[in-house]
Amino acid sequence: MKAARRRLILDIVATDATFERTEIRGQAAWAGKCIHCLSHVVVGLDGEPIQRATIEHIVPRAHGGTDALDNLALACGRCNALKGMRLDVRRRDDPRLVAVIERLKERKASRLRGAGT
C-alpha cells in the first residue's frame, strides 16, 4: 500500500474517537468501528489495514466527494462495497443516497475525537 494512503488512514484514525490503541495477535494496532455497521476494523500502527478496514467516502467520488478528511471514514470492506454498488450509481438527489450521506455525516460528527468536550 502506498505511503500516502497509509498516512490518510492514520489521519482518519486520529480523528475517530472509536479507535483505540490495542494489541491484536501480539501486534500493536488501532481498533475501531465501521462507520456503517459498527463492526470492528483494525489498522496497523503504520496505517496498513489489518482487518477489513477500507476508506469510505461519505459523499461518493462519483458525486463530487473528495479525499478531504471531513469526507472520509473507515468502513469494513463489505459495507463499503455494498454502499458503492447500491448507491453510487444513483442520481445525486436520490432520496436514499441523500439519507445515507446525511446519516454518515452525523455519525462522523458524533465520533470526532474531542466532540462534546
Please render the helix and strand layout as text.
Elements: H1 3-15, E1 20-24, E2 27-33, E3 40-44, E4 49-51, E5 53-57, E6 72-76, H2 77-87, H3 95-111
Antiparallel strand pairs: 1-2, 2-3, 3-4, 5-6
N- and C-termini, Cα separation:
35 Å
* Derived structural class: alpha+beta
What summary fits the major beta sheet? 4 strands, antiparallel
Number of strands: 6
The average pLDDT is 92
| SSE ordering | HEEEEEEHH
Uncertain regions spanning at least 5 consecutive residues: none
The helix count comes to: 3
Query: Overall 3D geometry?
Result: elongated
Helical content (DSSP H or I, runs of 4+): 25-40%
Strand order of the largest sheet: 1-2-3-4
Radius of gyration: 14 Å
Number of domains: 1
Strand content: 25-35%
Overall description:
This protein has three helices and six strands, in the order H-E-E-E-E-E-E-H-H. It is of the alpha+beta class and 117 residues long. It has one domain. The strands form two sheets. Strands 1-2-3-4 form a four-stranded antiparallel beta sheet, with helices on one face. A hairpin with a 6-residue loop joins strand 2 and strand 3.
